[in-house]
Here is the input.
Amino acid sequence: MKDLLRLRTSLTEEIERVLNEQIKMEADASAMYLAMSAWCDRNGFDFSAGYFKKQSDEEREHMLRLFKYVSDMGGRAVSPDVTGTQIEFDSFRGVFEQALQQEIAVTQSFNRIADKCMKTKDYVTFTFLQWFLNEQIEEEYVARRALELFEVIGEEGTGQYEIDKRVPKIKYENTYED
Ligand SMILES: [Fe+2]
Ligand SMILES: [Fe+2]
Here is the structure.
């Protein structure tokens, strides 16, 4: 029975496991961004609330993209448990610090998976991962730029209001032409 099951997929058990772990990581990120959106909304940061809601949707898309790949390859994609999502955050700035930390952790996680793919000669999964590795450039950039607004604008006076307004306007140019 076991042998027959393994014939259904070229994914090794280890690669299938780390892909499922990444599915969970994306689901956790989606839940965290939604919690950040709610916190921003409660604290009067309307634009950031919209920004984090959008981030949350994107993380779910990432989760589904990985989920589809595992399924398409004949593997067993696991719908993850998402529990213990944080509700409260210390400060407006703290939310953005945590968001950047999360994105860096995701990049590192994809690097580790890519490394495993190379070591096990799973070039199919390695190629599939390129989209995510590329996407993390933008994800980190936007999160870093958002946090930098706190330094550039400052939180004094109407600073927080200005920061909030600018957050959704951050754009990543993936060209070096201009
Ligand atoms: Fe993601
Ligand atoms: Fe992300």
Q: What stands out?
A: Residues 29, 59, 103, 106, 139 surround fe (ii) ion (ligand 2) (CB under 6 Å). Residues 13-42 form the longest helix (30 residues). The mean pLDDT is 95. DSSP finds six helices and no strands in the chain.
